[in-house]
Design brief:
Blueprint lengths: L8 H9 L1 H10 L5 H15 L5 H6 L2 H9 L8 H18 L6 H4 L4 H9 L6 H14 L7 H4 L18 H30 L6
Helix pairs in contact: 1-2, 1-3, 2-3, 2-6, 5-6, 8-9
Length: 204
Amino acid sequence: MTLSLPIDASANELLSRSPLALLIALLLDQQVPLEKAFGSPQVLVQRLGHEPTAEELAGFDPGALVAIFSERPALHRFPRAMAARVQDLGRIIADRYDGDAARVWADATTGKELAARLSELPGFGAYKAQILIALLGKQLGVRPDGWREAAGRFGEEGSRYSVADIVDDASLAEVRAFKKQTKAAAKAAAGSRRGDRGQPAPRP
């Protein structure tokens, strides 16, 4: 299945067939719009003139990689930090998985094991690992035993919580609406906590 994210068709095709590109996209999915994070692996390919391997990224001159990430438009709002993380990702894939990013999930026999493997990658906390497990299971057919449980709420059938649930324009709108509601609720909760701290303590 080819992903249907709100990015160029060629970028969706790359993410659908290249496990390394998909990992890079999820790694970059932080403090930038979805379109930016998931479209950047294709831009990286264009700037290099070919699809990089994990070994190539691992051995890349750090300054040169930063320059590629920083070229306008930058691949991320923090190009230096993200170039370093992508290089660290390349090293882990090269060293632990013989350069084959697909083995991160292909060799995992359970959802719990997959979650543990993903959480060891740079930029992948438990939250991001759950989203990728859900994406793999729902859209790419990677379903080790217990994958839905390992994905948490993101693995729920029919949910509209994350990129894992985007398959068309309608689902994209629903996911964006959910994210907007979540941010609004978090902002309101933060304001409430600040207000509570500003109140005088009750008299004994």
